[in-house]
Backbone:
C-alpha cells in the first residue's frame, strides 16, 4: 500500500528512501541556481537593454550598414555602455531584501514603456512622465487595453519568473557592501571606456537628435521619476510668487449690467481639423452660423496639458518660459480675483494643473443631476458644461469670469467624446487601440469629436445671447495643444516642443462678442477680423483677457494684447484717467462691486457724448462698465467735468 502522507511506498528500505530524498533535494537545489545579487541585476539589465529599446536602436543605427564592421563595433560599444550604466544605478539600490521587487518593477515598467513608444511613437521625456504621474483614473482607463496587457505579459513573464525563482547568495554585510561597491565602480569604468570608444559618433547623434536620449528604457522612466520627485519637493517648499496685486478695473460704459467672460479651454483640438480655419470637411457647421471670429495662426505653449495649461495662464508664456517660476507664481485667474472679478473654474477634465489653486477661485465639476443623459459614472460629455453655464448665469451677482475646461478630443478614445447622434463621419475608430484602426477611421472619430465641440461652443454662445438683457458677455475659446493622427507614424501628443510637428502645436482660437459690446463700439469687430491671419500664441492670452476686461495692472503688456488698437484707447491712457479718481476700496472678501439690479445706485453723472459714467458724487464709486476704451484726453476731460458736475449736484441737494 502507499501511505498517502508519504512520497514513497513503505516497503522500500528506509536507507534507500533516505537516499532518494537526498537525491531529490540535490536535484531541486541544482534546478534553482544560487546567484549573487550583482549577477541577477546584470542578467535582468542585459535583457531589458536588448528587448525594450527598439526605438533607440532604430534611431542610433539609422543610416548604418550592418555589412560594415564599424557598425557592429558602434552597436556593441553602445550596448555595453547602456548595460553598465543601468547596472550601476540598479545595483546601488539592490539590497538583498529589495532586489526582487525592484527588478520586477523595472522589467514591467520597461515593457509598458516599450509598448507605448512602439504603438504611439511617443518620447518619454520628463514632461511625458509628469503627464503620466498626474493623469486621473478616467484617462488611465483609456490607455489600458488587452493588447497592452498581452504585450507586457509576453515581455516580462519569463524574466520576472527567473527573478523570483533563483536563490540569492547570503554573504556577510561587510563583504556584500565591498563587493557591491567594487561592482558599481567597475561598471562605471566599463561604461566610460565604452563611451570613449564611440564618443565622436555618439556626441554627434546627441547634438543633432537631442531627444533621442529619452528613448533609452528604463533609464528614461527612472530619470523622469527622479526629476519630477525632486521638483515636487522643491515646489512644496517654494512660496507662491504674487502677481498683479495692483490690478483694478477701469469701467467706461453706460450700461449697469454685469460683465461675463466665458473662457473655454479646449482639449487636444488642432486647428487643421476646424472647417472655420480651412479644413475641407465641415466640422463647424453650427459655429459657422454664429458671428464668431476665428484666429487661424495660433501656436500652443506646449504639446501637453501639463505644460500648456499653466503656461497659457501665466504672464510669462513661452517667450519667457521658466517652468518652475510659472508653476510657483500666480496667474491670470489670480490677477482677475485681485481686480475684483468673481472667478469660477468648472472642470470636465483631469484638473486645472494649478492654475485654479489660488484663493478666491471657485472650483467645481459638472453636476450629474443637472445634466441627465450627458453623464455616465464619473465622466460627462462636454454638453454638461452648457447646462452648468445656464445655472451660473441665473445667479450672476457681479462681474464674472467663468473658465470651462473641456474634455474635448482627449485621446486615444476619441469615440467616447461624442454622443451617438454626432457619429456622422464613419466608419470611425471604436477603440483606444489606434493601430487596430485605419488612419481614415482614426480621423473620422477625431472629426466627430470636433463636430461635438462645435455644437457645445455654439450652445454656449446661444446661452450667452439669450441672457443679453441681463449681462454683457463674451466667449473666448482656445485649445491647449493639438494632436497627431498618424502623420509620420505619430499619434496623440506630448512630443518635445523642439521637434513637435505642427499638428501638435497649431491650435484653434475663437471669439464671440455680444451685440452690446460691438454695437456700442466698445470692441471693433471689423478691426479684429482684419487681424485673424496674424501670428498669435498662448502668450497673448493673459494680456488679451486683461485688456478685454479693462484690467489695469503692472503685469499687463500691451504688445501682447490682441485687442490693443481695436478699441478707443489704451490701458496706459486709462491709467492716466484713473489718477483723477481713485478706484473704490475692496475688502479682502470678494463682494459685488455693483448693487443688484433694481436697487438705487445713487446719482450717476454721464457724458452723453461719450457714454462714460463718471464718479458717483454720493458713493465715491467710479461708475460705468464695458469692454471698450476712450482716449486719455477724452477720459481726463470727462473726469474733470464729472467732478464739477458732482459738486453742483451736491450743492443743490443740500439746499
Residues:
Amino acid at each position: 500500500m502507499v501511505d498517502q502522507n508519504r512520497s514513497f511506498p513503505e516497503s522500500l528500505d528506509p536507507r534507500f528512501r533516505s537516499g532518494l530524498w537526498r537525491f531529490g533535494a540535490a536535484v531541486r537545489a541544482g534546478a534553482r541556481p544560487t546567484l549573487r545579487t550583482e549577477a541577477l541585476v546584470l542578467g535582468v539589465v542585459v535583457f531589458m537593454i536588448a528587448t525594450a529599446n527598439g526605438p533607440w536602436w532604430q534611431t542610433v543605427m539609422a543610416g548604418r550598414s550592418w555589412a560594415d564592421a564599424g557598425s557592429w563595433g558602434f552597436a556593441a560599444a553602445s550596448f555595453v555602455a547602456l548595460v553598465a550604466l543601468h547596472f550601476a544605478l540598479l545595483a546601488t539600490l539592490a539590497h538583498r531584501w529589495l532586489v526582487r521587487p525592484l527588478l520586477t518593477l523595472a522589467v514591467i515598467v520597461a515593457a509598458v514603456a516599450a509598448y507605448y513608444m512602439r504603438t504611439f511613437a511617443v518620447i518619454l521625456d520628463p514632461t511625458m512622465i509628469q503627464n503620466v504621474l498626474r493623469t486621473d483614473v478616467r484617462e488611465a482607463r483609456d490607455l489600458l487595453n488587452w493588447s497592452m496587457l498581452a504585450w507586457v505579459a509576453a515581455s516580462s513573464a519569463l524574466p520576472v519568473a527567473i527573478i523570483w525563482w533563483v536563490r540569492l547568495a547570503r554573504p556577510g554585510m561587510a563583504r556584500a557592501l565591498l563587493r557591491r561597491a567594487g561592482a558599481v565602480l567597475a561598471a562605471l569604468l566599463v561604461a566610460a571606456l565604452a563611451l570613449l570608444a564611440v564618443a565622436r559618433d555618439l556626441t554627434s547623434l546627441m547634438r543633432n537628435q537631442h531627444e533621442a536620449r529619452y528613448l533609452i528604457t528604463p533609464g528614461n522612466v527612472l530619470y523622469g521619476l527622479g526629476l519630477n520627485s525632486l521638483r515636487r519637493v522643491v515646489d512644496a517648499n517654494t512660496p507662491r510668487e504674487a502677481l498683479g496685486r495692483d490690478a483694478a478695473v477701469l469701467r467706461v460704459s453706460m450700461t449697469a449690467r454685469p460683465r461675463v467672460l466665458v473662457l473655454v479651454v479646449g482639449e487636444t483640438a488642432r486647428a487643421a481639423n476646424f472647417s472655420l480655419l480651412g479644413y475641407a470637411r465641415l466640422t463647424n457647421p453650427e459655429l459657422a452660423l454664429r458671428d464668431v471670429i476665428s484666429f487661424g495662426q495660433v501656436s500652443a505653449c506646449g504639446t501637453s496639458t501639463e505644460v500648456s495649461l499653466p503656461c497659457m495662464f501665466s504672464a510669462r508664456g513661452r517667450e519667457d518660459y521658466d517652468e518652475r517660476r510659472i508653476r510657483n507664481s500666480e496667474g491670470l485667474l489670480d490677477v482677475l480675483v485681485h481686480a475684483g472679478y468673481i472667478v469660477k473654474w468648472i472642470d470636465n477634465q483631469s484638473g486645472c494643473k494649478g492654475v485654479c489653486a489660488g484663493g478666491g477661485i471657485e472650483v467645481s465639476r459638472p453636476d450629474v443631476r443637472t445634466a441627465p443623459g450627458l453623464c455616465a459614472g464619473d465622466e460627462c460629455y462636454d454638453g454638461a458644461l452648457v447646462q452648468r453655464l445656464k445655472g451660473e448665469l441665473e445667479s450672476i451677482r457681479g462681474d464674472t469670469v467663468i473658465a470651462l475646461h473641456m474634455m474635448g478630443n482627449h485621446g486615444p478614445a476619441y469615440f467616447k467624446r461624442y454622443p451617438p447622434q454626432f457619429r456622422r463621419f464613419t466608419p470611425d475608430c471604436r477603440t483606444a487601440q489606434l493601430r487596430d484602426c485605419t488612419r481614415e477611421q482614426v480621423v473620422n472619430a477625431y472629426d466627430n469629436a470636433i463636430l461635438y465641440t462645435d455644437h457645445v461652443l455654439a450652445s454656449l454662445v446661444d446661452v450667452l445671447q439669450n441672457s443679453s438683457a441681463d449681462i454683457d458677455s463674451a466667449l473666448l475659446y482656445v485649445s491647449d495643444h493639438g494632436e497627431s493622427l498618424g502623420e509620420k507614424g505619430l499619434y496623440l501628443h506630448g512630443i518635445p516642443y523642439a521637434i513637435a510637428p505642427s499638428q501638435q502645436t497649431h491650435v484653434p482660437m475663437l471669439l464671440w462678442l455680444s451685440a452690446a459690446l460691438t454695437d456700442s463700439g466698445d470692441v471693433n469687430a471689423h478691426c479684429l477680423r482684419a487681424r485673424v491671419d496674424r501670428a498669435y500664441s498662448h502668450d497673448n492670452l493673459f494680456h488679451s483677457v486683461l485688456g478685454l476686461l479693462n484690467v489695469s495692472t503692472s503685469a499687463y503688456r500691451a504688445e501682447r494684447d490682441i485687442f490693443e488698437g481695436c478699441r478707443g484707447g489704451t490701458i496706459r491712457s486709462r491709467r492716466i484717467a484713473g489718477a483723477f479718481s481713485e478706484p473704490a476700496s475692496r475688502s479682502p472678501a470678494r463682494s459685488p462691486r455693483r448693487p443688484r439690479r433694481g436697487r438705487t445706485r445713487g446719482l450717476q453723472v454721464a457724458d452723453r457724448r461719450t457714454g462714460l459714467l463718471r464718479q458717483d458724487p454720493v458713493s465715491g464709486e467710479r461708475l460705468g462698465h464695458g469692454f471698450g476704451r476712450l482716449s486719455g484726453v477724452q477720459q481726463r476731460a470727462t473726469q474733470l467735468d464729472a467732478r464739477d458736475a458732482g459738486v453742483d449736484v451736491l450743492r443743490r441737494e443740500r439746499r
In short: The CA atoms of residues 216 and 457 lie 42 Å apart. The chain has a mean pLDDT of 81. Residues 439-466 form the longest helix (28 residues). The first strand starts at residue 34 and ends at 35.
